[in-house]
Amino acid sequence: MTVDFASLVPSWVRSLEPYSPGMPIEELERRYGIRDSIKLASNENPLGPSPRALEAVRESLGELHRYPEGDAFVLRRKLAARLGVSPEALVFGHGSNEVLELVVRAFLSPGEEAVVAEGTFLIYRLIVQAAGGRVRSVPLREFTHDLEGMAEAVGKGTKLVFVANPNNPTGTIVRREEWRRFLEKLPGHVVVVVDEAYGEYVEDPEFPDALAATREKPVLVLRTFSKIYGLAGLRLGYGVGPPGLVEFLERVRQPFNVGTLAQVAAAAALEDHEHVERSKRLNREGMCRLAEGFRRLGLFWVPSQANFVLVRVGDGARIYERLLRRGVIVRPMAAYGFPEFVRVTVGVPEENERLLRSLEEVLREGGNDGSGG
Ligand code: PMP
């Protein structure tokens, strides 16, 4: 008997397109037989984690036969004090991606709708579709969330709105005044998710205080230890919201969703202000250097508040492939609706120089090398 496996899943799962993550260095080097590659593709912190986080991990290794603290007791209290919120305002996840899952599982029934921007983090639509929800997408305006358009797109069947601030992959932010107007317009039956995965990098004084909104509205702010804290491999993110709302996320959360090492590393990383400041400085300087390099190469790029930048290179897929062969991994952007662009994560100075040099070479090759991409 042959089984039609596709007939076993609901139509909304059948039609899902799997998320394509950035290529790991090991895979690239295996594929092309090269060495000394660099990865500027997944917006990780090129400095790595705080040494204090690594020390905390080492100290916890003897406890790995025990289950982790189910409520992240220590980390929860530390973070709540840091943010000036009550411990019950926090929910932790296996990366902020898991918190996104919890949100959808808790608030969205099949057939209900989520409003998202067209050129934003693909995981929002993926998770909504996987839960049988419908996605209503609103085009970006000048590479930025069109909050006015998104508020207008909210209807009776809308349950969730996702706003990435800064946005991935454009690096743009929504500013205080448009955020305030957006909140005013929003009906009470909608939960707003503000994804601040890159919030710590922002230097624009007009960056809104989304946390403040969680005191009055059904707003949930998402943050992560994967970016500026350099702990992407341990998977830890969190949500901050009104305790009455967060309670429902806790109900759909698995008891041991965050491992011991992630908890202790994050608690230690929070204390290392110097590492965070150094990471920010490195990013600012690297961003300036990349911008200067792009200008010299005559390329258009989108000014970014995050640790990555979207740059127009012509045929994004082809340039991505050619950079790969030179051991430089960036992210092609066709899946995000930007086929002419690649997204580059800011690296350490040598990585930025290598990227710019390689980019210059592959652009100079023109369309004649036959590699095709
Ligand atoms: N939100 C945005 C906008 C992101 O770019 C990412 C990571 N690429 C995440 C959330 C997820 O981060 P994590 O699950 O590692 O916390």
Strand order of the largest sheet: 2-8-7-6-5-3-4
Rg (C-alpha, Å): 21 Å
- Strand content of the residues, in percent? 5-15%
Q: What does the oligomeric state look like here?
A: single chain
How helix-rich are the residues, as a percent range? 25-40%
Largest sheet: 7 strands, mixed
Q: Counting H and I runs of at least 4 residues, what is the number of helices?
A: 14
Bound compounds, each kind once, are: 4'-deoxy-4'-aminopyridoxal-5'-phosphate
Structural class category:
alpha/beta
Please state the average pLDDT score. Answer: 95
Spell the H/E element sequence.
Answer: HHEHHEHEHEHEHEHEEHHHEHEEEH
* Distance, first to last CA: 41 Å
Overall form: globular
Query: How many distinct beta strands?
Result: 12
Uncertain segments of ≥5 residues (pLDDT<50)? 368-373
Structure report:
The protein has 373 residues and is an alpha/beta fold. The protein is 39% helix and 14% strand. The protein has helices at residues 11-14, 25-32, 51-60, 73-83, 96-107, 123-130, 147-153, 176-185, 210-213, 243-252, 260-271, 273-296, 316-325, 349-365, and strands spanning 38-39, 90-93, 113-117, 134-138, 158-164, 191-195, 219-224, 237-240, 308-312, 328-329, 331-332, 341-345. The strands form three sheets. Strands 2-8-7-6-5-3-4 form a seven-stranded mixed β-sheet, with helices on both faces. Strands 9-12-11 form a three-stranded antiparallel β-sheet, with helices on one face. The longest helix is centred in the C-terminal third of the chain and has 24 residues, at 273-296. The protein is globular, with a radius of gyration of 21 Å. The two termini are 41 Å apart. Residues 368-373 have low confidence and may be disordered. Residues 43, 95-97, 121, 164, 168, 195, 197, 224, 226, 232, 237 line the site of 4'-deoxy-4'-aminopyridoxal-5'-phosphate (PMP).
